[in-house]
Design a protein that fits this description.
Radius of gyration of chain B: 25 Å
Largest sheet of chain A: none
Structural class of chain B: mainly beta
CATH superfamily of the largest domain in chain B: TolB, C-terminal domain
Radius of gyration of chain A: 30 Å
Oligomer: heterodimer
Distance between the termini of chain B: 94 Å
CATH topology of the largest domain in chain B: Neuraminidase
Strand content of chain A: under 5%
Structural class of chain A: mainly alpha
Strand content of chain B: over 45%
Number of domains of chain A: 4
Chain lengths: ~625, ~500
């Protein structure tokens, strides 16, 4: 009776472990939905033997395939998250069972899983460059494999069988799970050494395990085109892009170290005393929650970027604008907040797509807030494909798709954009190559079948989004160029260049937008009158009026020729009056003063939004 | 027992129904197949010409007949066992009959032939590369045994690369179709020219103070220990709105000769108003063909900078030149115009002379030095005996035809073509007839007939050899990792 009372707190804490998966699942859906979908978008799984066979011939390829298979379910975030959480829970509970961790210390078994969670959710912008197929599920799948290895090794008590098992399971395991198999063998070996198996049995297991750990990478990787120095860590992320191998691997090591020292946990049963047990359970529970919480990559701009990119990919332009509105309103009282260039240029595109750039462009903050990362990641790798495709530069879109594929592997989005790009260029066979692939996927086949119809009936292309708004922008003569990784700068140059002979109304509208942003009055007037000629708008949009009003201050004819709204004149007058008041202030003080009431005007943009870093 | 009887009766009925259908088939049209192996000519030792029937039908039976050998293959994918294929080709020309079951009846599609001709060199070495553009994180040089489907990696950059420390590997080349003398280049990380000569590996730095770059496009001298190279300052730019997609151009280029004995390079041609490229020896080793474009004063277009310069470079037109050479004392005669392509608003590249010295096959397009990315690029052939030339229409397609190589017996060529989808380069083989015409080019057979459609990489620089490469990929990787490039010397040009 007393014993039961004594264990009440540890037992209660033990039961509390079931809250962890629920908490994680809810947190994932609430805070990381866009991130999960980004993980899925940058992955690829195809139900096709030819494609599968490419993985089956590589060490650790089988585990990668499982990882890729499961990653596709992140397309529906709550489903993918649920699968992941269940696997994490299974790995934790199996850890508890395999290592016979006493019930009143059961939360300890959740620590490796919490490290996996922290690892995956700490990635942030790494999601753009991660090139290890199936990486999101690999650690937990690898952990399950390692636990299975320990269970299997325990079964044999005959020396020869132990040796053969270590060799067979080890080599086969390495082929299936790479590094995770080696970690499993190391853990299993320690487990057997500490067990009551006979001495000869332990020696045989150890001999087999050591042979596998030394030879498997040499034998398997030696027959592939991998760098042999990566043989022992195959299945873990290698050095990718500008991120070091240690950055990608070290965070995972503690989880597997825990597994390797876990066989010593049999001594845990000797621990007694309510206070000690409660303390261990409490600290474990706190750590299981704290580790992911501390490392969880939290950045409002990153989250908004992901949402806006996804909206752009899905042609949901209003949604992209709404995401920016929401994040901007959340930071209304935060003077230090500003959007990243990715957010700004996507917003510009979304406004152009919805025909509201002239009405709304300066309703939003401009800015060039640095993305929360310490390594170089060109904007082209993030949204180059979206910008170049939608602004009618298929050549550069194609370039970045290929570069992305070469650097980071194939993914659903690159295939989608390849197909769209080829449809734009009337390159049907090339488009079909990608559509055929996407038709073998679970969540993109419907899209691919719709696009196939456009390949069959070309006349539909000009009537179908997004092509209906891209083809009119492709009215210029082809030229040879390079964007030198600066897609925003390239677009500015492109639309500020000579007007094509066959310029369409949409082209003139976009060119006017870029001329307005460029702040050159001569260019603006040229574009402005071309826009009026070709678009013949019933009413000139507010911000175009503001720009025209500003640039016509020294030209009475222009001032009188254009029917400016009273609101535009009033705002300009306010601006002029304010300028008189701020005459003695330095530029920054004046900017802050103007920002209070006039930041959402072209006048403010013209005078005070300067020196932004473009990408 | 009762069950067994039922199975036997069912099997007999099924077989009978098949037999009855095929025995009385209705005549049909041409079956749609991929690759298009209809009425092609294949080497007697080529791997099975597996293909896929694209028509939609309930069942498919394909009968291949040659002499008294008959092979039946069922299913949409016609994958012919290699032993049976050997028996077929050993008998001579093959007739292919395809039967398709539509509804309850069988349709006999129009039969077609596969002609069997001379042997081909068994090995083809090529680069496997993502199509287009600048990144080269995943590149391999592979060697395919084209008499089977076996393929091995000669060298892969992933064997030594780390993160952004990567290599471009290119321009593999062999002397006289044998692998005792082989070279290829590695750019960037651990870079150098890898020279394998009679069992010995070397890594060389071919850039000297007197030459504009390291060695690029090679041509082994057929009788002596020389290699002619171009030296190029190569750049790439992107087409904004064209299916050509990318333009590769030179900003400078010259020709050099590397003397393997002295480990020294000397200038062959470095006219300051010309860009010279693609050296190629005639089989006697006494004439060097190459292409060259008049550029005027390079500083004029370089001043324009960036895209303007690129657009200017892209307009250069290369003509074909030759130059006599005395291999004994390494002296050169003045260059001679062989074909003034620029005068007819064309650009000619990649000259390759047939092993018998009779034919000279080149690429021809509207402009520039790099035809793979130009849809209009075709093959043109010169008859060196009669002094005539013609577009090789029987090979050309409406997409790019580019890099081509002769087999050692001069009976076969391999060409690189993008005819399938405009982007992925695939390898096609074609037989040279006695009259100087070629047979219909056919896609290099693959075990899985869908391979070409599903494979997302390109093949380029196909080179025949009569034997496999003798150094392993691991050995090359280990050598490349552990060896610094040795600087070659520079020696003055010798004029006649």
């Amino acid at each position: 009776m007393n014993q039961r009372k004594e264990n009440k707190i540890p037992d209660l804490l033990s039961k509390a472990r079931w809250i962890l998966p629920v908490l994680l699942w809810v947190a994932l859906i609430l805070f990381s939905k866009d991130y999960l979908m980004k993980v899925e978008e940058r992955s690829y799984f195809e139900f096709d033997l030819f494609w599968l066979s490419e993985y089956l011939c590589k060490p650790s390829g089988v585990l990668s395939l499982f990882g890729l298979f499961l990653t596709q379910f992140l397309h529906i975030p709550w489903v993918g998250a649920l699968i992941w959480v269940l696997l994490l829970t299974a790995s934790a509970e199996l850890t508890r069972i395999v290592f016979r961790i006493p019930a009143h210390l059961s939360v300890l078994a959740y620590l490796p899983a919490s490290i996996f969670v922290a690892y995956n959710l700490s990635m942030g912008y790494i999601v753009y460059v991660m090139n290890l197929p199936g990486y999101f599920f690999l650690p937990v799948l690898g952990c399950l494999w390692a636990l299975l290895t320990i269970k299997v090794f325990r079964k044999s008590r005959k020396p020869v069988i132990s040796l053969l098992l270590a060799l067979f399971w080890g080599f086969a395991g390495y082929y299936i799970a790479g590094f995770y198999a080696l970690a499993g063998i190391a853990a299993a070996c320690i487990d057997i050494i500490l067990s009551d198996h006979s001495r000869i049995c332990r020696i045989m297991t150890l001999t087999g395990a050591v042979a596998v750990i030394i030879l498997a990478p040499i034998l398997f990787v030696g027959t592939t085109t991998y760098n042999i120095s990566n043989g022992w860590t195959i299945g873990m992320p290698e050095q990718i892009y500008e991120l070091s191998q240690s950055r990608m691997q070290i965070p995972l090591i503690p989880a597997f170290l825990l597994l390797i020292i876990a066989p010593f946990s049999k001594h845990l049963s000797r621990i007694s005393g309510t206070r000690v047990l409660s303390l261990i359970q409490g600290v474990s529970l706190a750590a299981a929650i704290a580790i992911p919480s501390i490392f969880w990559f939290r950045d409002d701009n990153f989250k908004a970027e992901l949402g806006m990119i996804r909206s752009a990919d899905n042609l949901e332009w209003d949604k992209a604008i709404s995401i920016l509105e929401q994040v901007q309103s959340r930071h209304e009282d935060d003077p230090a907040w500003e959007p990243t260039r990715v957010m700004v240029v996507l917003k510009d595109l979304a406004l152009i797509k919805t025909g509201r750039e002239g009405q709304r462009i300066f309703d939003f903050e401009d800015g060039d807030k640095e993305q929360k990362r310490s390594w170089n990641l060109p904007m082209s790798f993030q949204i180059g494909r979206i910008l170049h495709l939608n602004y009618g530069i298929p050549g550069l879109c194609n370039r970045w798709l290929i570069e992305e594929t070469v650097f980071f592997g194939s993914n659903y989005q690159t295939y989608k954009y390849h197909a769209m790009n080829a449809i734009l260029l009337n390159d049907t066979q090339f488009a079909l190559k990608y559509l055929d692939k996407l038709e073998h996927t679970l969540f993109y086949r419907k899209w691919a079948r719709e696009q196939r119809k456009l390949c069959i009936d070309r006349s539909l292309v000009a009537k179908t989004a997004p092509y209906d708004m891209i083809l009119p922008l492709m009215c210029y003569d082809d030229q040879v160029c390079s964007d030198f990784q600066g897609c925003e700068f390239f677009l500015l140059e492109h639309f500020n260049g000579p007007r094509p002979d066959n310029a369409t109304p949409l082209y003139d509208r976009v060119a006017l937008f870029f001329a307005m942003k460029n702040k050159q009055s001569t260019l603006f007037w040229t574009r402005f009158f071309l826009y009026l000629d070709s678009n013949n708008p019933k009413k000139i949009d507010r911000y175009y009026q503001e720009a025209a009003y500003l640039f016509s201050q020294n030209n009475k004819e222009l001032m009188e020729a254009i029917p400016y709204d009273d609101q535009v004149k009033t705002l300009y007058n306010s601006f002029v009056q304010n300028a008189a008041k701020t005459g003695k202030m330095n530029h920054e003080e004046a900017r802050q003063n103007f920002a209070v009431n006039l930041r959402h005007t072209y006048f403010y943009y013209y005078y005070y939004v300067n020196e932004l870093v473009m990408f | 027992m009762r069950k067994i009887s039922v199975y036997i009766i069912l099997s007999v009925l099924i077989l009978a129904s098949c037999g009855r259908g095929v025995q009385n088939p209705v005549s049909g049209s041409d079956a749609a197949i991929f690759p298009d192996y209809r009425n092609i000519t294949v080497p007697v030792n080529i791997a099975p010409a597996n293909f896929m029937i694209l028509d939609t039908a309930g069942k498919y039976i394909t009968l291949l007949e040659s002499g008294d050998v008959k092979v039946k293959v069922t299913g949409k994918k016609v994958v012919i066992p290699i032993r049976k294929w050997r028996k077929l080709t050993s008998q001579g020309n093959i007739t292919v009959n395809i039967f398709e079951k539509k509804g309850k009846g069988w349709i006999r599609m129009n039969s077609f032939g596969i002609n069997v001709a001379d042997e081909i060199d068994p090995y083809l070495t090529y680069r496997v590369i993502p199509p287009l553009f600048e990144s080269y994180q995943r590149l391999t040089i592979n060697q395919r045994d084209i008499t089977t489907f076996s393929e091995k990696v000669v060298y892969a950059n992933s064997m030594v690369s780390h993160g952004t420390q990567t290599q471009c590997i290119n321009c593999h080349s062999f002397k006289n179709w044998h692998t005792d003398n082989m070279q290829f280049h590695i750019r960037q990380y651990l870079g150098g020219t890898i020279m394998y000569t009679n069992g010995k590996l070397e890594k060389l730095n071919m850039k000297t103070d007197s030459t504009i770059s390291a060695a690029v496009y090679p041509s082994w001298h057929p009788t002596h220990d020389y290699i002619a190279y171009s030296t190029n300052m190569t750049f790439q730019n992107i087409h904004t709105n064209h299916t050509n997609r990318i333009e590769v151009f030179d900003d400078e280029s010259d020709l050099i000769l590397y003397n393997l004995s002295d480990k020294a390079v000397s200038i062959i041609e470095n006219d300051s108003t010309q860009f010279e490229c693609y050296p190629s020896w005639a089989p006697d080793g006494k004439t060097l063909f190459y292409v060259s474009a008049y550029t005027g004063n390079p500083s004029d277009f370089k001043k324009a900078g960036g895209a303007a310069a690129a657009n200017a470079n892209a307009t250069f037109k290369y003509s074909l030149y030759s130059k006599r050479f005395n291999p004994e004392n390494r002296t050169w005669s003045p260059k001679q115009m062989f074909y003034d392509a620029a005068a007819v608003d064309s650009s000619v590249t990649w000259p390759r002379v047939s092993p018998d010295g009779r034919w000279l096959l080149c690429c021809i397009s509207t402009h520039g030095v790099f035809p793979p990315n130009q849809e209009v690029s075709d093959l043109i052939m010169f008859d060196l005996e009669k002094g005539t030339r013609r577009y090789v229409d029987e090979i050309n397609s409406n997409k790019s035809e580019s890099y081509h190589s002769w087999a050692s017996n001069g009976k076969w060529v391999v060409i690189s073509s993008r005819r399938e989808d405009g982007v992925h380069t695939r390898l096609y083989l074609s037989h040279l007839n006695e009259d100087g015409t070629f047979t219909k080019p056919f896609l290099l057979p693959q075990k899985d007939p869908e391979f070409s459609h599903k494979f997302m990489y390109s093949f380029n620089i196909p080179e025949f050899t009569v034997e496999p490469v003798k150094v392993s990929a691991r050995m090359l990787a280990s050598f490349i990792k552990s060896t610094d490039a040795k600087q070659v010397n520079y020696e003055s040009k010798r004029e006649e």
